[in-house]
Design a protein that fits this description.
Two copies of one chain form a homodimer. Chain A contains 18 helices and 13 strands. In chain A, the strands form two sheets. An eight-stranded parallel barrel of chain A has the order 5-6-7-8-9-11-12-13, surrounded by six helices. In chain A, strands 2-3-1-4-10 form a five-stranded mixed β-sheet. Chain A has two domains: about 5-125, Alpha-Beta Plaits (2-Layer Sandwich); about 135-410, TIM Barrel. The first copy, chain A, is globular and about 75 Å long. In chain A, strand 7 (about 215-220), helix 8 (about 225-235) and strand 8 (about 240-245) form a beta-alpha-beta unit. By secondary structure, the first copy, chain A, is of the alpha/beta class. Chain A is about 40% helix and about 20% strand. Chain A has helices at about 15-25, 40-45, 90-100, 120-125, 135-140, 160-175, 195-210, 225-235, 245-250, 250-260, 275, 285-295, 315-325, 350-355, 365-370, 375-390, 395-400, 405-410, and strands at about 5-15, 50-60, 75-85, 110-120, 150, 180, 215-220, 240-245, 265-270, 280-285, 300, 335-340, 360-365. In chain A, helix 10 (about 250-260) runs parallel beside helix 12 (about 285-295), helix 12 packs parallel to helix 13 and helix 14 packs across helix 16 (about 375-390).
Chain lengths: ~425, ~425
C-alpha cells in the first residue's frame, strides 16, 4: 500500500463543496482546468489527490475573500485531501508546492486555510529533525528541569557590540538561562556580527568560568547561506551554544542546509508569521506550519505567549504550542522546544504549564524581568519562583509569602 | 547621508493613525512595548525607523482582520516607513524580517499589506540579480524578438519519464520555444528527475540538431539545496538551458545560494502566492514581493495572466507584470522576464502587449495550443501569429484572413 500525505483545510466555497473539493484535488495533482486525453483513469487513480473527508460546517451569505465566483451562498467545510508520496517523494519544498501551492487562488474558493498535515514515515527518514531538541538544549544550558528563563536584547537595534555585551553581563550576573538577539539584529555596520559575538561571548565565558554554568545565547545568524554558516562557525569557535534563524525570512531550503552544517541548537524565530496567518479565511494554522520547520531542524520554535501583546488569542497560542510539543512521528518525535514570548511575566506561568502539560519550554520576558524594583537578578529569580510554584502546584501568592523576589514582582507584573 | 530602505503599506487601524505608525516604526526598529532607559534620543534618531508619509484614505466602521483593539472607527491609510541600512546591512533575509516581520500581528493594526519597497544601491552591490534575464534567455532560446511561446507538461504529475518525453517531442516538433515542468513535478519515484531529464533532453537535442534551434525546457529542480545543485548540474550536462524553482517553497536563502551555483537561467514559479496575497487587508502586493526574487536571481518570474482562471483581477495582474519589467536600480536594472500563464490564448496578446509595453515575456498556453483542431504545430503557429499581429498593430481578425492557423484558432479560443 502506498504511503500518502494528508492535509486538512478550512474551505469556503460558493460552489458545490464536493465539486470544489475535487477541483482542488485535481489542480494539485493530475487534473487541470481542461479534461485532458492523457489523464487516463489509471493515471488519475494512481497519481490523483484524493478527497478523504468533506464535512460541511456552516453556510454564509457573503464570501470571506474577493475574487471568487459570485454565489448566493458560501459553504464552509472541513476538507481533507491526500496524495501518494510517489508524486513528489519526501521533499519539504515540493511538499509546500503540493499542499500549499496554487490552490488558494482558485475562483471556486472564497476562503482556504491549511489546518494540519500528516506525513508518511518517508519524511522522517529523509529529514533529521532537531539535532538537540529539549534534551540537548537542557544539557547545553545546564537547566535540568523547569523552563529556561530567558530574555531578549533591547533595544532590538541601535546598540553597538560593547553595549550589547554590557547588557548581557547584567543578565548573566542575574542568573539568566537564555538570551537572544532580536529578530531585527543581524550583521549591520552599526553592530557587526563578529564584534558582537566576540564581546558577548567574553562576558558569557567569563561568567561560566566563575559559576560553572554557561548561559545560552542565541545569536541571530539570519542571512544568506554562506554567511549563516560562517557566523555559526564563529559562534561555535568562541564557545557559543546556540544560533538563531528567522525561518520564514530564510526559507525551508536554507534551514535544511544550515541544519546539515550546524553543530549548535537552532533557535527558530517566526518573524512574518502574521502575514501567513492573521486572516482567518486564508493561509496557515500554526499546527501545520510548525511541522515543516521541525522536520527541517528547528530545535526551538517561537509560539507567542498567553495574554500577549499581539493579536493572537490565547486558545490559538496554546493550540500552536501544544502542536510543537506533540511528537511528529511515532518513532521519530523530533521534539522541539516551544518558546513563549511577548509580555510574559510569572503571572502566565501556571496557565502556560497547565496548557502545555510540561515545562519543557523557553520563557522569554523583557519587562517582566527588567521591571523588577530590585534589579535583574531579582527579576530572574522572581520568574523562576513563579514557575517553581506552577510546577509544584503551589498557589502563586502563597509561594510569594516565602519568596521575596516573587513577592516584590507581583507588585509590578 | 545614510542610505535608507523604504517600504510602503496599506494600513488599517482602530487607533490614532499617527500613533499606530509610530508604534510600527518602533516595533520594527529600536522600540518595544515598554519605554526603555537605554533607548536614548540619540539611538532613536540613529537607528529608529522613520514615518516618511502617512496619508489617510478612508474610514470604515468594522475591522478587516480579527484580533485588533476594539474601536468605533477604523482608519485606512497609506504609510511609508524608512530604515537606515546600518541596522541590517544589505541582506535579503534580514530585509524580510524588517519590512515584513512582527508587524502584521500588532493589536493596533486591523489590516496591513506591504505595497512596495525601495532599496538603496548597497543591495545592488550585494546581490547579482538575474544572470540571464531577457537577453540571455532570448539568446539561449533562439528567439530574437516577440514573446517566447511556451507551454506546461500536463497532466502535472502521473506521466513517467518516457511519456513526458513523448509530449515534449510533440511540442518541439510543433516549433515551441519554451516548455516547463509543472510546479508539482519534482523528483518523485513515479517520474525520477534523472530519468526525465535524460529522456526529455534526448528529444530536445535531437530536434535542435535538425532545426538548429533548441527549445528551452525548464526542469523543476525545486528541493533541498544539495539536490537542486545536483539537478542543475545534470540538466547542464545533458545540454538543457533552464531550471525551474518554486521560490516561495524554497525560500530566499535557497534561491540566493542556487543563483551562485547556477550557470542556467532560473525560471521562478510563485506557487503559494495565493496565501501571501489573497486577503486585500493582509500580506503582500506583488510589486514588493517580486523585488526580493529578482535580487536573489530569478531570470523569469510568474505573473499570472489577463482573464486568467484564478481570482486575481486583470489590473492586479498587469500591475504586477509591469513591476517585474521595471528596472530595479538605475545602474542595475536586473531585468527579469514576466511569465504569463493560466488560460492564455492569442486573444490576450494585444492587451498583454499594450499593458506591459513590451514583448519581452514568456507566454505559456495549454488548451490555447493543444486545443487547436489541426494539432500542436498549428496551435503554436496560431499563438505566434496572434502575437505578431499585436506587436505590428494589426487587427487580430484581419491578420487571420491571411494566416490559416490563426483563423482556425479563433474558432476555439
Amino acid at each position: 500500500m502506498t504511503q500518502r500525505i494528508h492535509a486538512s483545510y478550512w474551505l469556503e466555497t460558493g460552489g458545490d463543496p464536493e465539486r470544489t473539493a475535487q477541483t482542488i484535488a485535481g489542480e494539485q495533482s493530475s487534473g487541470t482546468f481542461l479534461k485532458l486525453a492523457n489523464e487516463t483513469d489509471e493515471l488519475k487513480e494512481r497519481a490523483g489527490a484524493r478527497v478523504e473527508c468533506l464535512e460541511v460546517l456552516e453556510k454564509v451569505s457573503s464570501p470571506s475573500l474577493p475574487g471568487a465566483k459570485a454565489s448566493s451562498t458560501y459553504t464552509r467545510c472541513r476538507l481533507e485531501l491526500s496524495w501518494p508520496i510517489e508524486n513528489l517523494g519526501p521533499c519539504l519544498p515540493s511538499l509546500l508546492s503540493t499542499v500549499a501551492g496554487n490552490l488558494y487562488e482558485l475562483q471556486d474558493v472564497s476562503g482556504l486555510r491549511i489546518l494540519d498535515i500528516t506525513l508518511p514515515d518517508a519524511f522522517a527518514r529523509a529529514y533529521p529533525g532537531p539535532a538537540f531538541g529539549v534534551e540537548g538544549t537542557r544539557r547545553l544550558a545546564g537547566v535540568a528541569r523547569g523552563p529556561l528563563i530567558g530574555t531578549i536584547i533591547k533595544p532590538s537595534v541601535g546598540l553597538d557590540a560593547r553595549q550589547t555585551a554590557e547588557q548581557v553581563r547584567l543578565l548573566v550576573e542575574g542568573g539568566i538561562d537564555f538570551i537572544k538577539d532580536d529578530e531585527l539584529q543581524g550583521d549591520g555596520p552599526g553592530c557587526p556580527f563578529d564584534e558582537r559575538v566576540a564581546a558577548v561571548m567574553r562576558v558569557v565565558n567569563d561568567a561560566a568560568d566563575q559559576t560553572g554554568r554557561k548561559a545560552m545565547m542565541a545569536f541571530n545568524i539570519t542571512g544568506d547561506l554562506d554567511r549563516m554558516k560562517r557566523r555559526h562557525d564563529r559562534v561555535r569557535e568562541l564557545g557559543g551554544t546556540c544560533v538563531m534563524v528567522c525561518v520564514a525570512s530564510v526559507g525551508v531550503a536554507g534551514l535544511v542546509e544550515l541544519r546539515r552544517h550546524s553543530t549548535l541548537p537552532i533557535h527558530a524565530h517566526r518573524a512574518g508569521w502574521g502575514y501567513l496567518s492573521r486572516s482567518p479565511a486564508l493561509g496557515w494554522d500554526f499546527a501545520a506550519w510548525q511541522k515543516i520547520w521541525r522536520l527541517a531542524g528547528a530545535d526551538h520554535l517561537h509560539v507567542n505567549g498567553l495574554r500577549n501583546k499581539f493579536s493572537e488569542p490565547d486558545d490559538v497560542v496554546m493550540h500552536g504550542a501544544r502542536a510543537v510539543a506533540t511528537p511528529l512521528f511515532e518513532h521519530a518525535p523530533m521534539a522541539t522546544m516551544p518558546v513563549f514570548s511577548s509580555a510574559q511575566t510569572g503571572l502566565q506561568a501556571l496557565d502556560t504549564f497547565t496548557g502545555l502539560g510540561s515545562a519543557d519550554l523557553i520563557c522569554t520576558a523583557g519587562g517582566g524581568i527588567f521591571g523588577h524594583p530590585d534589579g535583574v537578578p531579582a527579576g530572574v529569580s522572581a520568574l523562576r519562583q513563579a514557575w517553581d510554584a506552577a510546577i509544584a502546584g503551589i498557589d502563586l501568592r502563597r509561594h510569594a509569602q516565602t519568596h521575596g523576589e516573587l513577592a516584590r514582582a507581583l507588585s509590578f507584573w
